[in-house]
Design goal:
With 439 residues, the protein is of the alpha+beta class. A four-stranded antiparallel beta sheet has the order 1-2-3-4, with no helix packed on it. The two termini are 12 Å apart.
Length: 439
């Protein structure tokens, strides 16, 4: 099963299924991080907000419909005086009530194509959100791989320390035995014990380093602190990478370059939105209004006791920009400057990516060469320690020769393990820059 298929098969397995196993594989670590890593989850939520906007993308093309309604009551203290002697002056309380309601429709038919530009911008923002998630996935998986194989490196270093410690224990036994039979010297035994204590201290420190790195990996995987597991013993290296293969289509696969290009596209759409300010806006307007007045008690005999009206109004409205203080001109200049700025950032990103790829590939090639050399050296150093230990046991060599052989073996382990890890880190960085770290 390929890594990609394995990732998807493990994706929904959950944290408990992962941590219940004694050995945590690198694919399980990646699958757990894909599900639980907080940076990835935050990035997905940010992308989801763009998708919500897209689900309402056509609302800008729809009319706006609003309704109003009111019911009012009036109580007035009136005093009426008449000039005619045939009418009597009156005074008293007048009461009335009124009912009003209406419905208004406003539909923008033309706004300089702004609504179409807004639709396109929202669609591109959704794509931008997907690219942001992809970039976060790319970076997070890179961090998981580097941290995981750092643990493997430190575990290999711990095994080398334990092997060195066992050699020092054998040195202590031999030095003590030689001292007891009068063939050795006390300084040999003391030095052997000092070296043994030093390796014991280094072992304690190495265990602490591994525990700290596991906590970092737990954080990347989004699982609780203190979960215990073991990692694999080896660091697999893809030794067949070529520079041409890494550069192939990298302009369309590198997440940072894709994001930079997408931002330029969105800025061009924003320019279309601003340019729409030069054109008139044409809207369809329509409304229906109803009014009713009921004078329930009125002292004025000439006042209507009841009135009701209603009717439909419709028409077109054109809003024509004549002068707005050069606002659109200013916004267009700012938008064009922003596009130029983002183009500079894209060119700079390409340059930085090119330098990063070349440096990572040089390091990758160097570490592969070192790895071949150090694998040969470690065999020679092991054989040298075996011979020196046997010669010391037979009494034909000094403890200084054995200690030098042991130091040489320790240095050989350090270089070999570092070469393996550095080659893997360079490989991961190349795949991260290419944007194909999941493959």
């Amino acid at each position: 099963m390929t890594r990609t298929l394995l990732l998807f098969s493990l994706f929904f397995s959950g944290v408990q299924a992962v941590i219940a196993q004694q050995i945590l594989t690198v694919d399980q670590a990646i699958a757990t991080a894909l599900k639980n890593n907080y940076d990835i989850r935050i990035s997905r939520n940010d992308s989801l907000s763009y998708s919500i906007d897209e689900s309402y993308i056509y609302t800008a093309f729809l009319p706006q419909l609003n309704g109003t309604a009111s019911k009012n009551f009036t109580r007035n203290q009136d005093s009426l005086a008449y000039r005619s002697a045939s009418r009597k002056d009156t005074a008293g309380l007048s009461t009335s009530n009124s009912l009003n309601f209406g419905v208004r429709l406003d539909w923008v038919l033309f706004d300089g194509m702004r609504m179409f530009a807004t639709r396109d911008r929202i669609r591109e923002l959704v794509k931008l959100g997907d690219l942001q998630v992809k970039a976060q996935l790319n970076n997070t998986i890179s961090q998981v791989l580097v941290t995981y194989f750092n643990i493997v490196q430190q575990k290999q270093q711990l095994n080398a320390i334990i092997e060195q410690k066992s050699i020092s224990e054998e040195r202590v036994k031999l030095a003590d035995r030689k001292l007891m039979v009068g063939l050795g010297a006390k300084p040999e035994l003391l030095q052997a014990k000092v070296d043994l204590n030093a390796f014991t201290s280094t072992q304690y420190r190495q265990n602490t380093v591994i525990a700290q790195l596991k906590e970092q990996l737990n954080q990347l995987m989004g699982i609780q602190s203190g979960v215990t597991y073991d990692v694999v013993d080896s660091i697999p290296i893809n030794e067949s990478l070529t520079l041409d293969e890494v550069y192939k289509n990298i302009d369309n696969s590198n997440p940072e370059l894709q994001l930079a290009k997408k931002n330029i596209e969105i800025s061009h759409i924003g320019l279309r939105e601003i340019r729409a300010g030069y054109y008139p806006t044409v809207s369809l307007n329509s409304s229906y209004n109803f009014a009713q007045v009921n004078n329930t008690k009125n002292l004025n005999p000439f006042a209507l006791p009841y009135r009701q009206s209603g009717g439909l109004v419709y028409g077109l409205t054109a809003n024509i920009p004549i002068f707005n203080g050069f606002t659109v001109n200013r916004q267009l200049k700012q938008a064009r400057l922003n596009i130029f700025q983002q183009q500079l950032q894209l060119d700079n990103q390409r340059l930085m990516m090119d330098v990063a790829v070349k440096n990572a590939f040089r390091d990758y090639e160097l570490q592969k060469q070192n790895l071949v050399l150090e694998e040969e050296n470690i065999l020679l150093a092991k054989e040298n320690v075996t011979i020196a230990l046997e010669r010391f046991r037979l009494g034909v060599s000094t403890y200084i020769e054995l200690r030098e052989a042991q130091i040489s073996l320790n240095d050989g382990y350090n270089r070999l393990i570092a070469a393996r890890y550095n080659a893997k880190v360079a490989e991961v960085e190349l795949m991260r820059l290419k944007g194909e770290i999941l493959k």
